[in-house]
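To close the section, here is one more complete example, presented without commentary so you can practise reading it yourself. The ligand is zinc ion.
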Amino acid sequence: MSDLRDLYQEVIIDHSRRPRNFGPMPGHNHHAEGFNPLCGDKLTLYLKVVDGIIEEVRFEGAGCAISTASASLMSEALKGKSEAQAEELFARFHALLTEADEKQAANQAESLGKLQVLAGVRDFPARIKCATLAWHTLHAALHDQAAPVSTE
Ligand code: ZN
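Output:
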């Protein structure tokens, strides 16, 4: 298990240092802003959705390693997904981090692919909002919510 933890740690560090799909997106058709006041994480998420499929995802902002890595991993996971699949992924990811029943949470992990590297965050309740900020912002973007998302 400790080897797996080390591997997870490496993926998180890699994505926080070299976030994928980072930067503005000209021609996006959805966007939203998210803020996690507890930690100071801020991000703007851009989506290009065509016929209900998320074709492109990019984000900008500044935050802690967990929030940046989570947004980066999310941006990779969402490409090619339908809006409904994206919301479902959010629900499963949220359960992975917050489901009180460890077994139920572990059941989510397999279906989450690379996103499961953030599973360890469940042991640090204060950081859960860092890990879910990008996803709450995604939800807002898909619903064209104009007001910035706050995790508080
Ligand atoms: Zn944070």
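Once you have examined the tokens, check your reading against these statements. Residues 33 and 44 are 4 Å apart (CA to CA). Helices lie at 2-17, 65-78, 83-98, 102-111, 128-142.
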